[in-house]
Amino acid sequence: MSSHPLEARSEWLPTVAAANCYASAKESVDWHSDTLTYLGPMPTIGSISLGAGRPFRFQPYKFAPLSAGNNTNTTIYAIHLPHNSLLIMHPPAQEHWRHQVPPSPVHPHPIAGQARINITFRHYRDEQRLDTIPRCRCGLPCQLRSVVRRAHNFGRHFYCCHAAHANQGRQCDFFAWWKPPTRGKETSKTLENTKK
Ligand SMILES: O=C(O)CCC(=O)C(=O)O
Ligand SMILES: [Fe+2]
Question: What's the CATH fold of domain 16-122?
């Protein structure tokens, strides 16, 4: 059941499982929010941990609204992810928070030892497809993100150029606010070039 107006209206049915293998305690994932391009705004992500236990850290963005028990936006929270555990990142986990798996001591597993496998289950939304996502001036599909570094428009979703990773660091200045699909029509139109 969706509870946020921007969440997918359809039932959460994972269409993608993405696996990460951390061979040892040295392997880590730095601070980030998960890319929203195919998930759409306000996704729910299920995350299974297998093998060595590792800490998982999360921290609200500076301008995220404070909630009860969240005293300052610099607080870093850590939870232990043991073997065979399920972590569910509910909305607005990606828009208001960032997360990481730091390089830190592991709780070894009797068979896997230091190794940990993480599988995230993600629901790619019907309307967030390669043929509906806008293309930037480089001619490549855009990335969907939300505003995280400014108080103004905090949390608002936008498309931007994602060419740099495939284009030797070069990218264009394409910008377009994400617009919810009109009811009954699974399209993602955008409001191009309005100010951020
Ligand atoms: O390994 C984990 O528990 C999290 C990995 C992660 O953040 C990701 O794949 O986006
Ligand atoms: Fe992540």
Answer: Jelly Rolls (2.60.120)
